[in-house]
Amino acid sequence: MNEKNPLRIGLIGFGCVGQGFYDIVQRQPELNLAVTRIAVKTPDKPRPLPAHHFTYHADELLADPAVDVLVEVIDDAAEAFRLVSTALRQSRRVATANKAMLARHLPELVQLQAEFGGTLLYEAAVCGSIPVVRTLDQYFSHEPLHALSGIFNGSSNYVLTRMSEDGSDYAAALAEAQLQGFAETDPALDMGAFDPRSKAVLLAAHAYGVFLESDAVLNLGIEGISAADIAYAASQGQKIKVVASLSRLPSGHLTALVTPQLVGPESPLYGVEREFNAVVLDAEFAGTQFLQGRGAGGHPTGSAVLADVLGLRRGLRYQYAKQAAAPAVQLTHGLELDAYVSHPDAGVLREVLTWLELPTEALASTEAGGAYATGPVAVQQLWAWRRELRANGVFVARVGEARVTALVTEKAATGWA
């Protein structure tokens, strides 16, 4: 297209990210971008722009040939998939920030790109302002990675920071995070580690060429955490962080975990606080790389959307260069980790230890009257009891990374056997 003419953008969604992106575009006229159409769902919702700026039917933007690029930033994963997949079938250029939709449908969306010639970019879906997707897809496209880990959710990290600073309990810290706008009214996806799991799935495609199934990756959250757990970590000179980990095992298989983890001062993640996100890359030749930035918010995430829009104008496409040599996956079978397990009720925890096949002799009492235990636990046991652990308010954190206890068959290596 003629660079003298503005790139015409159709914006689907005008919440926190949509407004942040719109504001950035308006502040930088030299970029020669124009948000020409905005689609929203609710007609009577108060908005900072007059009503004539909006349409209430997103399909109108898909049908408009005058729209050069579509930006999708809504919170409905099913509707986002319908819109994005339709746009790709029309050979459109699309930027999206919807990590849950992408994590569930990425293989299909990549196939639609190949079949119809459209382009999909999604830097804003992972870690807000941190340019990790493009870094992996371009800079590390042909370099083996030993591991990739990080704090991928600012909401849970904010809660953990406030608990550590004030000695407050989980409910009070969560309420503060919600008041500050760092946690949703319904915090389940963030506090249950479903959100960082989606982001880990997306990064696996670029770091290792593997398209993981979200539901096959173990995720444990912080809903059951207490001030006693924070105090225990501090007594060990450590902090609790929700860490997403992708790593190559000695067998060459890839494993993935998203759980609370005790980290010490030697870890770059130890000092990542409040709503910040961070990514640690362990590359075979480049060594260790550390990226940190704001993981949420209108302007930080809107900045990532803008980078994708400018990339689409330049013809940028993700390469998925490692897909042809993607490793096998070992997610639960034949793996073990050292775990810290706690619950306010010692009787409940005693039963939990039988689920996880930990000896009851490992049981110890906290100063607050609760109970905890430490010891090696099979990842398969955590996987088998994950719903019961969450339903009963049991808190589980790992100490270090998973290790191999048994070789697995090719079928079991998928993690879905």
UniProtKB/TrEMBL annotation:
UniProt keyword Amino-acid biosynthesis, yes or no: yes
Keywords attached to this entry: Amino-acid biosynthesis, Methionine biosynthesis, Oxidoreductase, Threonine biosynthesis
Record's keyword annotation contains RNA-binding: no
Pathway: Amino-acid biosynthesis; L-methionine biosynthesis via de novo pathway; L-homoserine from L-aspartate: step 3/3; Amino-acid biosynthesis; L-threonine biosynthesis; L-threonine from L-aspartate: step 3/5
EC code: 1.1.1.3
Protein family (similarity comment): Belongs to the homoserine dehydrogenase family.
Name this protein carries in UniProt: Homoserine dehydrogenase
Organism: Hymenobacter monticola
